Amino acid sequence: MSKKGVLLTGAHFMNGDIACAEGAIVAGCRFFAGYPITPATEIAEHLSERMPEIGRIYIQMEDEIASIAAVIGASYAGLKAMTATSGPGFSLMQENIGLAIMTETPCVIVDIMRGGPSTGQPTMPGQQDVMQARWGSHGDYEIIALAPSSVQEMFDLTIDAFNLAETYRVPTLLLADEIVAHMWEKIVIPTAEKIRIVNRKKPNVSPEEYLPFMPDDLVPPMACFGEGYRFHATGLTHDEHGYPKTSSSEVQERLVKRLCEKIRRNEDKIMRVEEVMLDDADVVVVAYGIVARAALSAVRKAREMGIKAGLLRLITLWPFPQNHVAKIAGSAKRIIVPEMNCGQLVREVERAAKETSVVFLSKLGEEPHTPMEILEAIRRNS
Amino acid sequence: MVQETVHPLSKYLREAMIPHIWCTGCGNGVILNCFVQAVDELEMDLDKLVVVSGIGCIGRAAGYTNADSFHTTHGRSLAFATGAKLANPELNVVVISGDGDLFAIGGNHFIHAARRNIGVKVICANNFNYGMTGGQQGPTTPLEASTTTTPYGNIEHPFNLVHLAAASGATYVARWTTLHVRRLTQSIKRMLQKEGFCFIEVISPCPEIFGRRNKMRTGLEMMDWFKRASVVENFSDPSKAEISTEKLIVGEFVNTEKVSYEKFLHEKISQINEKRVGW
Amino acid sequence: MVNIMRIEIRFAGFGGQGIIKSGIITAAAACLYSQKNAVQTQSYGPESRGGACKSEVVISEEEIDFPKVVEPDVLVVMSQHAYNEYVERVKQGGTIIMDPNMIPHEKELQNVNVFHVPATKIAEEMQRKIVANIVMLGAFVAITGILDKDAVKESIKANIPKGTEELNLHAFEKGFEYAKNLLKS
């Protein structure tokens, strides 16, 4: 068994799942609960070894519902917490993702997307959970979802996910695909001073004055169990005291709108994209995850052929970077959206692109789009 | 002039949340009363007490208690409590929930929490039906009982909760009715001082919803049944602990010692770290 | 050492042969011990043992955008099923390194260089059938010259269970020597 510290500074060759687990450790994750599922199991396996050796907690729960519930419990008991799963487990988690939204629980949920629906293709990649990530739990809410394209980003974005979860008291999703999760690549883990870690805002008032759901700049400071604040939290619609107010329209309006606003009004701080050769691009590929790497290759090849192509790589999927898409829609003639699904995020692109025509490229099964397939679409639409 | 007096137990209640939502004749108030009485007699630190509940009438008990409290989604109280207890083993985590929440939708969480022996204490109000939604059949509804979804009589066999808890590995298992106020309070006190997973079933009257369809229209009639049929059989075989019109076996069935999950885990972590040669 | 822009390698066989591991060792050798960029991807079925399995490596002097293999320069193949599946997708002028004892039915192929390396038999002679993939890896290094021999040996040591170093390095040398002799003849 390895005997390592928290931060494994240096160059490593590892797969995406392990990079995600190491990112969680560095971010300060002290509690992991999960249930075995391909292709996310390596995250749990790795953490089952790593967490105890650095004095942290790993538990395998009886299912994914229990896993996310335990994560919420641990987060309320004061620890940064995470779970990891894939489509079928992600479906089971939706109920308590809603609870985490409603109780403003900072936590990270990793979904390694495989082919669905249902049990689908456990060992094959997909990008089929993108809309479920946004709308999977009932009711109105805003959520944050990040989409890594490399093993390095499996590490980096896991840290970002924790930071965002703690900042906005919102469950934050790492939406990766099977290829990125199982791919082995070199990553460089930086030194401690180069890594930004955010912790949740704590109350600076006495327990008598503390209102657990009174926002301070849209996000309420968070007391935890055992700290003497003796607060109540509930999945029911609640007022600033945390007390149920199931018959008040006013409280429902105030609470649910704030839960959305705390993300919407901070979109600019949350959203991240990578822009490649967009300045003069006539044809822009909008892509994320593994597909963005095929798109990058295709865009480079198109440029070699003299076609003015560019890539908008979405790192944040939710909140959707609509301003970035609107911007390219103003200058580009065509937008191409390749996805490993039957057309999910393309709907958002179309909404943001307004008049500019959007071409969708679907791919399902073992392989993502090849660069040649995307290049062909660029050529046809240039 | 009327002098205002403060009830000695009111400091344990969140008065801003009261009046409560429970019906006349409901047993939930008795259960909450016995619980806070036990907390008082043990002089527990309220700052280290966490009360967790799921969905259902008794689910509101968490909010009524003046401690840290969390009202989870339906059935998930034990999974949530497992995370909280593991994250901070100093907390006294108590789950107060109903038979439907803990044994239908949450049944899988219950058996696994008991199997792991997580140090969470469970008080289950068993009222034989889903009261909050208007009286549907549940996992403890007696055979042939009438509910809004068994208008011709229930044809499903009910769980014997104490047998299930014992078989799943709970280190303390008891059953009382809301008539057994003193015994229940003492039982809760014993449970709160134990290390591992503990379970107390409290048979609780639901006259407005369950009783009226089953020839017990008032709380008093239901309590009459408890009085008439209850037999204390401490440490008898929980598999034979019947609940019927004629006989209602109550008592303590299990009281054993077993290392709790959180203690086991944290000992394991210490062992692993002792072997280390530094960070 | 060849200066390479982008080389695509596909290892294929069935689950349990160490196919995935071969790809990981190769890619790690390139990026941790040879200052090249490399990425390994894989695909496998639901079976832990016996199902079709492939492990793909892209090696490049430049940043690797698309990590999957499209048209492999090299196919290292250890089962009939994988052979049938992938043999015709090798790049024109590319290389096929195959275990003839595991692939009784061979096709007539044009414009590819085929090398027969009886890795499973060699491993069996060492009484350790499990190291057949490493024998194959030795042959791969000797035949292709893509990677430095010592870099691959370092990578083997870093990616195998502790205590099996001697066995694996011996297997590697066996494969390497076998292929060297093949190249001479």
Describe this structure in words.
The complex is a heterotrimer of chains A (382), B (279) and C (185). Chain A has helices at 16-27, 41-53, 64-76, 87-102, 130-135, 151-168, 178-182, 249-264, 267-270, 289-304, 322-331, 345-353, 371-380; strands spanning 10-15, 29-34, 57-60, 80-86, 107-115, 121-125, 144-146, 171-177, 184-189, 232-234, 273-276, 283-287, 309-314, 316-318, 334-339, 357-362. With 382 residues, chain A is an alpha/beta fold. Chain A has 2 domains: 10-194, Rossmann fold, CATH 3.40.50; 273-380, 3-Layer(aba) Sandwich (Rossmann fold). In chain A, strand 7, helix 6 and strand 8 form a beta-alpha-beta unit. Chain A is globular, with a radius of gyration of 21 Å. With 279 residues, chain B is α/β, with parallel strands linked by helices. Chain B is 33% helix and 16% strand. The mean pLDDT of chain B is 95. With 185 residues, chain C is an alpha/beta fold. Chain C has a domain at 7-118 and 144-160: Pyruvate-ferredoxin Oxidoreductase, domain 3 (3-Layer(aba) Sandwich). Chain C has 6 helices and 6 strands. Chain C has a 6-stranded mixed sheet with strand order 2-3-1-4-5-6, with helices on both faces. In chain C, strand 2 and strand 3 (52-60) form a beta hairpin. The mean pLDDT of chain C is 94. Classes of the chains: A alpha/beta (382), B alpha/beta (279), C alpha/beta (185). Strand 9 of chain A pairs antiparallel with strand 2 (37-44) of chain C.
**C-alpha Rg of chain A (nearest Å):** 21 Å
| Biggest sheet record of chain B | 8 strands, mixed
Q: What's the level 1 CATH class of chain B?
A: Alpha Beta
Please, what is the CATH homologous superfamily of the largest domain in chain A?
Answer: Thiamin diphosphate (ThDP)-binding fold, Pyr/PP domains
How much helix is in the residues of chain A? Answer: 25-40%
What about the largest sheet of chain A? 8 strands, mixed
Please give the domain count of chain B.
1
Counted by DSSP, the helix tally of chain A is 13
Shape descriptor of chain B? globular
Alpha carbon gap, first and last residue of chain A: 55 Å
Biggest contact: A-B, 51 and 44 residues
CATH homologous superfamily classification of chain B = Thiamin diphosphate (ThDP)-binding fold, Pyr/PP domains
Class computed from helices, strands and strand pairing of chain B: alpha/beta
The run of helices and strands of chain B is HEHEHEHHEHEHEHEEH
Overall CATH architecture of the largest domain in chain A: 3-Layer(aba) Sandwich
Strand-residue fraction of chain B? 15-25%
Alpha plus pi helix count of chain B: 9
Query: What is the domain total for the residues of chain A?
Result: 2
Here the CATH topology of chain B equals Rossmann fold
